[in-house]
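Prompt: For my understanding, could you write out one protein's sequence and backbone structure tokens?
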Amino acid sequence: LLYSATFPYLKRVGWLVGLALFDSARAASAGEGDLAIDRSLQSFRLGRILLERPYLRETLAGASIMLVSLERMRDVIYQFESAFNAGKLKDVADSLASQRIREHRLPVANYLAAQQIIERTYQPRGSVEAVKLAEVMSGARVRSDRTLQRLSEAAFWDARSGDQADWFDVNDKVKGVWADWDKRWKLTDLYDPIFDIPSDFRKMDPNKFLAVYYPLNGVDEIFDVRFKLLLEIAGTVNSMGCVGFRLTNKTIPPQIA
């Protein structure tokens, strides 16, 4: 099942990022500004790759790596300003400014996972099958070697099978929730009044649409994450511009003087 996917590699990626950002600080303290900024930029680009992955967990991990990499860039430039040169800062700022964060897609694997669960647990044009719902969801959420926990999980799903919406409603719901998110995602105005209105997912009764709620829970977090990424990229680019100006002209930009 798509819903049961695990991502053990992300822990090792985290170790790699930690080493890269540690070396960034080390290089800056040793006066190697170009190497320091390159290490943080490489970490940022690794996060950018993960941001495009189809699962929510991978997307959030990528965004987290990008944010911590931007933070390290700002930290080392602030602490060891003399180690850097204006030309390198301009190149890195241009690279950051060229990132098309608004164009990255929603984590579609979570949507496909919800559709897959519906397909495997519902009778076509009918109702949910309690035995299949318990079997599929307990198998997806609990490791096979944890027999007692899996039995408990199966009992949870079996007890709630009678409260579930029928095949027509659950299919309409998963499509409607995703369409609502997709519409919001494509808006160019991040302050559009629609964001003040709860999404269709938040208005949904989770107890009635468990097959939709569990695979899609957390996807709406990506909207705030994207906003924060845009904000921090812009802030980092502007801070690099200010430092570059100061390194070149021995004074701070007149606009902020």
Summary: The mean pLDDT is 93. The radius of gyration is 23 Å.
